[in-house]
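[User]
If only I could read backbone structure tokens as easily as an amino acid sequence. I have put the entry right below:
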Amino acid sequence: MIVTGFEKIVEERIRAAQRNGEFDNLKGAGRPLEHEDYSRIPQELRLAYKILKNADCLPPEIEIRNEIIRTETLLSNMEDEALRYQTLKKLNFLIMKLNTLRGGSAAFDIPQQYEHKLVEHISTNKKQTRGK
């Protein structure tokens, strides 16, 4: 194996950092590395996803979904009708924006809304079945 000058410089800097204790008390020291599961992401996008994640950047869909959740929380605690109306308009706009980005409905991505609709649907079907 041929070692380049650059590799020698890197190795020497690593050894110097070890001697100076720069690797002591690192976060996660002594524990196994956590490996991310990128199996659901296409191979050609994995590096980009990892870079974005390390930079604390979220995909636009996730940012909008988080904003929807924050707006719903804010809306649930509001008492002023005029402010509720404005916030509801904002929520509708965010949902429409998310639907446009995804090319489909976001209704089933929001668990509390989906769960409520599912329970209502199941209980309606049970009542209809019992009545027959």
